[in-house]
Write a structure and sequence with these properties.
globular; Rossmann fold; 245 residues; 10 helices; 42% helix; 6-stranded mixed beta sheet
Length: 245
């Protein structure tokens, strides 16, 4: 991974996505081979050192919450690291602002929506200032509104953090720099998103389902685009032209 890259990880259920991200964060040990992060850190041997530099956002937002109030939850990781109180307050404030949670400081976490809970968990990770963010299907348990909330906040982080995003929602990866396709625990492809989406054989071989936006574009004869917004705009223009014609 290069600094600032946004990398997607996809594959059928059981293909190895969650196993990979947990190995990278030291939650699992590899059965074979070696893993090195940030120039030499071994997650299997130095998991706590690795977690100072690698933050992980899990599927279930409730699993990422440990305190009754939002600001206390965001500060939890900093307290464990022994960060000085004034610096902690500043980093918590900045992290909450970055995910759009200003004014939520004394909100009780159990009263939040799924999307808000996931943003609290993300703020807690960002407060620790990791170099790498690992996302293990972070929107899979959220409704459409919650997914949109989280994805909008992740989009702001593009280029600022190195991000590895495992998901079965391929539409979340339109703007990724590249996508890793896993099959039976092995790397089947390392490819830009537009090439993956336009390769029907590769998609079928790895049991990947094209996003609805792409299927609609294909039915209109529109090739894949780098940006989902660009593709949506072209679809809208094509449909408008047909309707007005």
């Amino acid at each position: 991974m290069r600094a600032g890259e946004y990398i997607g990880v996809v594959g059928e259920n059981g293909g190895g996505k969650s196993t990979l991200v947990r190995i990278l964060n030291g939650l699992l040990k590899p059965e074979s081979g070696d893993v090195r992060i940030l120039g030499g850190l071994d997650p299997a041997v130095e998991p706590f050192e690795v977690r100072k530099h690698v933050g992980m956002l899990f599927q279930n937002p409730d699993n990422g919450l440990v305190s009754p109030f939002v600001e206390d939850d965001v500060a939890f990781g900093l307290e464990n690291l022994g960060v000085e109180r004034d610096e902690m307050r500043e980093r918590v404030r900045d992290a909450m602002r970055s995910v759009g949670l200003e004014g939520y400081e004394r909100r009780e976490t159990h009263t939040l929506s799924g999307g808000e809970k996931q943003r609290v968990a993300l703020a807690g990770i960002l407060a620790v200032e990791p170099d790498i963010l690992i996302l293990d299907e972070p929107t899979s348990m959220l409704d459409a509104s919650g997914r949109r909330e989280v994805l909008e906040r992740l989009d702001v982080l593009r280029g600022k953090k190195t991000i590895l995003h495992a998901t079965h929602h391929l539409e979340e990866l339109f703007d990724a720099d590249r996508i890793l396709v896993l099959k039976n625990g092995e790397l089947a492809a390392d490819i830009p998103p537009e090439r993956l989406f336009s390769d029907g054989g590769l998609m079928r071989k790895n049991r990947l389902v094209a996003p609805t936006l792409l299927r609609l574009a294909e039915s209109l004869g529109i090739p894949p685009r780098r940006s989902a917004d660009e593709l949506a705009a072209e679809i809208s223009n094509r449909v408008r032209a047909r309707t007005s014609g």
